[in-house]
Amino acid sequence: MPIAAQRNGNVIEKGSSLGRDAWLRLKKNHLAMASLWFFVGVVFLCFLLPLFPGISDPNITHPDLQSMPALSSATSMENAEVSYFLGSDHLGRDIFSRMLHGGRVSLAVGFLATAVSLTIGVIYGAVSGYVGGRTDSIMMRIVDILYALPFMIIVIILTTYFGNKLWLLFVCIGAVEWLTMARIVRGQVNSLKNQEFVEAARSMGLSQSRIIFRHLIPNTVGPVIVYTTLTVPAVMRLEAILSFLGLGVQPPNASWGSLIKEGADRMASDPGLLVYPAILFGLTLFSLNFLGDGLRDALDPKSSKD
Question: Is 136 left (phi over 0), alpha (psi -120 to 50) or beta?
Answer without folding.
Answer: alpha
